[in-house]
Amino acid sequence: MNDGPAPDATDPDSQVPTWRSGTPDPTDGCVRNVGAAQVRVEEGTEVVPSDRLLLEWIDPRDPRRSEQRMIRDSWRVQRIQSEFVSGFDALENVAEAVTVFGSARVRPGTPEYEIARELGRLLGHEGFAVITGGGPGAMEATNRGAYEAGAESIGLNIELPFEQHSNPWLTLSMNFRYFFVRKTMFVKYAQAFVCLPGGFGTLDELFEALTLVQTKKVLRFPIVLIGAEFWGPLVDWLRGTLEAEGKVSPGDVDLLQVVDTPAEAVEIIVRAARS
Ligand SMILES: C/C(=C\CNc1ncnc2c1ncn2[C@@H]1O[C@H](COP(=O)(O)O)[C@@H](O)[C@H]1O)CO
């Protein structure tokens, strides 16, 4: 009887994180998101994220590995599908919402943290639910502000190989295996995007949003960048190089609205929502 490919100890797909015993503390650095589950692991454990397994190159000339890939990819499609379904189910009642992106590395108590918190608070007072990546830094601060305003505060977290926890200021918390599924939720349930200063993650999310608006996949969708000093040089480059060289159309860069304060950002969003 053929039971399919034998388990392979060197195959990351067969890695199952082991639970660590003890009192759970989601901030102790030993928690990893594995799909919808949160798993406490031995300190320093790297859990291979689902995105990496999905995107991993496998040599088709190795018949055993390529057969395994076929079976695993078919299974993965079911998982991806189920992730879409649970995301759509959980978020279907979200009314007006704003998705906020920003650095995971901002520390509580800093001016940047307080700006994000104020943004969450103001959006909440205007009746918007706030959606973030659910992690630390600017995400936490924005969720915190929204939570303090009594608004819906949503965190869509992602499986990462290292330290991971959802921030505690959420009224709805989800964890995704796949970046592209999570990104769909960021766009589908929001009427506007706000970007606070951030790194690669924030830039990735910003440019995805910008491309969707540029190609009219989403309509009437303000994209507001808070922090003229931080974003100004990027916007100047987009205008001075991309637009000047004809790599984007005149007007494309104007899809970005740069402001300095959360109040200005919220005013733009409220105006757009009312129009
Ligand atoms: C690096 C640290 C924590 C990582 N945890 C994250 N949790 C959830 N979402 C995240 C995390 N890191 C990045 N993101 C997403 O990207 C954006 C921020 O990335 P940046 O590179 O810091 O700009 C953010 O909007 C999230 O959607 C620290 O302990």
UniProtKB/TrEMBL annotation:
<keyword id="KW-0378">Hydrolase</keyword>
<dbReference type="GO" id="GO:0102682">
    <property type="term" value="F:cytokinin riboside 5'-monophosphate phosphoribohydrolase activity"/>
</dbReference>
<feature type="compositionally biased region" description="Polar residues">
    <location>
        <begin position="12"/>
        <end position="21"/>
    </location>
</feature>
<dbReference type="InterPro" id="IPR031100">
    <property type="entry name" value="LOG_fam"/>
</dbReference>
<comment type="similarity">
    <text>Belongs to the LOG family.</text>
</comment>
<dbReference type="GO" id="GO:0009691">
    <property type="term" value="P:cytokinin biosynthetic process"/>
</dbReference>
<protein>
    <recommendedName>
        <fullName>Cytokinin riboside 5'-monophosphate phosphoribohydrolase</fullName>
        <ecNumber>3.2.2.n1</ecNumber>
    </recommendedName>
</protein>
<feature type="region of interest" description="Disordered">
    <location>
        <begin position="1"/>
        <end position="31"/>
    </location>
</feature>
<keyword id="KW-0203">Cytokinin biosynthesis</keyword>
<dbReference type="Pfam" id="PF03641">
    <property type="entry name" value="Lysine_decarbox"/>
</dbReference>
<dbReference type="InterPro" id="IPR052341">
    <property type="entry name" value="LOG_family_nucleotidases"/>
</dbReference>
<dbReference type="GO" id="GO:0005829">
    <property type="term" value="C:cytosol"/>
</dbReference>
<dbReference type="InterPro" id="IPR005269">
    <property type="entry name" value="LOG"/>
</dbReference>
